[in-house]
Amino acid sequence: MKLSRRTNTIILWFISIGLVLGMIITFTPSLGGFGFGGASGEGATALRVNGAPISELAVARARSNPLFNLVTDGEVGRDLEHLLVDELVRQEVVRQEASRQRVSGAEVGRAVDEFRQARGVAGRGNDSQYLRVLSSSGFNDETFRAYQREQIRQEKWEASLIDGVEVSDEEVRAYYDANRDAYASEERIVARHIVLAEREEADAVRLELLAGADAAELARTRSIERADRDGALGAAAGETEPRPVGRPALPTAVSSAAFTLRDGGVTEVVPAAGVFHVVSVHEYLAPSPRPFDEVAERVREDALTAKRAGVLDEEIARLKRDATIEVSETSPLSYRNVAVARVGAVDITRSDLVRATYTNPQIQQSLSPDTAFIITTFFKPSILDQLIDQELAYQGAADLGVPFVGPRRFVAQTVLNYVARDAEVDDEEVQRYYDDNLAQFTVPASADVVRAQFGDAESAEAFRSALLDGTELQVAADEVDAEVTVLGRVERGQLEPSLDAALFETDAFVALPDGTLEMSDVLVLADEVEALPESLEDGGEESPETEAPPADRIVVLVAERTPERVRPLSEVRPQAEATVLAQQRAAQRDAWLAELRERIEVEQFAAAAPEFDPATFSIPGLPAEFQEEVPDEGALEPAQETGQPDDEVPSPEIVPDAPAQDDGADDEAPSDADEAPAAAD
Questions:
Q1: Would 407 disulfide with which of 5, 152, 560, 650, CB 3.0-4.6 Å?
Q2: Do 144 and 244 sit in the same domain of this protein?
Q3: What's the domain count of the chain?
Q4: Is 57 in the same domain as 143?
Q5: What pLDDT, in 10s, does the model give residues 117-173?
C-alpha cells in the first residue's frame, strides 16, 4: 500500500515513541525478553541501570539482532557496541518508570486473546498451534504473558504523559507554515483515454485527434475501455465529463506520457498491458499548497501528534540524563558517552552520533567490514555536521518567536523549513538551470539489435536482398545458414567498438519494408590479435603449435535505432523547478545557519570529514578497478525536499548532567569520539 507523505510523517513520530522496540532497531523479544530487568536466573550481571541489573544473557539476546553482528572490529564495532548498550539503557529506564503502572490479569488475558485471534490460533483447540507460534519467537506462554504485561504498562505510561496535551491555534498555524509541502495537492490532469487492441488503429486514432477530431466521440465509438463514459477519466458510471485525476488513474507508462503535456495535447501511442493507449489531455493541474482552512483539521491532528511525541522524547531524555549506569568490572562492555561536539551550552554526545549514524537505513543496508572505512571517514563526520546544524536550528528557533512543536530534532528540521518557506523560482532561473544541465535531461541513443553472422560476403548480400524483398529475418537467415544473435536493447559503449561505431556513429543503414527496422551494410570485422609474449618478441623460441590469425567476421545488423534526444523543458519543467527550488531553500537555510554560527559557539571534538583529491584518493581494501573514477559533486543530482526531517527518525537529545562514566575497559584503540571530553553539565 502506498502511503501519503502526511501518513508517512505521522508514522515517523509513532516510530519515534515506540519505547519498547526503540527507534529503527528492532529487538525480537525472546524467552524472558530483555527489558524486563533483573538478573535472577539469567547469570552474571553485565551492567546496572539505577541499580537494576541487566544480565549477560539479556545482552547476548540483544546482540542477536543482525545489526550488531555486521561489523565487530574497529571503530564501527565499538560504535555498534555503544549503540547496543545505549539501547539497553534506554529501554531499562523506560521499563523502570512504567513499572509504577498497574496492569490486571484480565488486561493481559485480553491482549493474549487478541494476539491469538489475529494469528488464527484462538480457542483451546488451537493451544498447540499457539505455543508453536510463541516458540518460533523464543517465548512460552508464561514469558509471553510477562512481555504483554510490560507492553501494557508502557502503553499506560505513555498515555499518562500525553494525557491533556493539546495544541494552540498558533502552534497549528506554525506547523502548517513550516510544512506546507506536506499539504500540497498532487498534480492532476483532465483528460480522455482511448484504448485500442491494434497498433495500426491506435496510430490512426491519434492522427485523427491531431487533426481536430472530437476525443469524446472517438472514445465512444472506438475505445475498448470507458466507451460508455466517452473515455472520460475520473467520471463515474453514467457520466461522460472528465474529472481531475492523479497518476494512479493510468498505467505507469501511460501516465508518464500524459503528465508531460503541461499545455495539453495528445500523447504518443503507448503500448501497455497488451493494448495501445492514446490520451487526449485537456488541462494539466500543477500541484499547489492547499489553503490552511481546507486542511486545518489535518494540520491540527499532525501538530498534536508531533507535540505528544515531543513530550515523550523529552521525558526519555530526562530519564537517561538522570540515570546511574554502572558496567560490571567483569563485563567486556564499556559505555563512555562522551561529548563529540558542543553547540552553545548543549553537548552532542557519542550516543547521539552513533544512533543517528547506524539507525540510518541506507547505512544499515551497506554496512560491512568493507564499507567501515567509508562510514567512519565520510558518513559519520557528515552526520555529525548535520546534528550540529540541527542543534543550531533548535536554539535559533527562540529568535523567531514562533511556537514550534515536536521532538527536538523534528523541531530543528521544522525551523529550517520555516526559514526557507518563502523561497520562489522564476522562469529565468529554471531556464538557466535547464541550459546548464542539458546532460541531465538527455536520453542517450539506443537500439534494439539483432546480429546476423555469415561464412562469406556473398551469403551476407543474399540475406540483405531477401530482407529488402520482405522476407522474415529468421527465414532469410536460414536460407544462407547465418548465425543469428539477439543482442537486445543497447546504448552507446555497450557493444564492441566496431559494432558500436556502426550503430551510433554512421548512417550506413537502410530502412526495411516494415518501416521500423533498419539494416546495416555488410560489416567486415577484424578480430584483434593478442600481443605476443615478450619471449617471442625478443626472438625467443617459438611454440611448436602456432595458431593461425583469426578470420574476419562478416556480419549484418538489423536494428530499431532511437537517436539521442534532449527532453524539452516543457517535459521536465517540474523536475527542474523542484531542483532549483530546493537549491534556493538550501541557500536560505545555509545563510540563516551561518548567522547563528556568528553568535553561538560551536566546538567539535570528533574528527571532521577529510578533504581529498579525487585524482589521488583511494579506499583501503577496495579493488583498483573501482577506484579509477570518483564523480565530482556537480554530477550529482540535488536531492528533492520532502518536508520531513533529514534524519529518518528523531531520537532524544541526551545531555548528561555529570562527566561521562568510564565503566569498563575498552581493549581496542579509542575512536575519535573516545578522545573527546566528557559531556558537559
A1: 650
A2: no
A3: 4
A4: yes
A5: 999 999 989 999 999 999 988 889 999 999 999 999 999 999 999 999 999 999 999
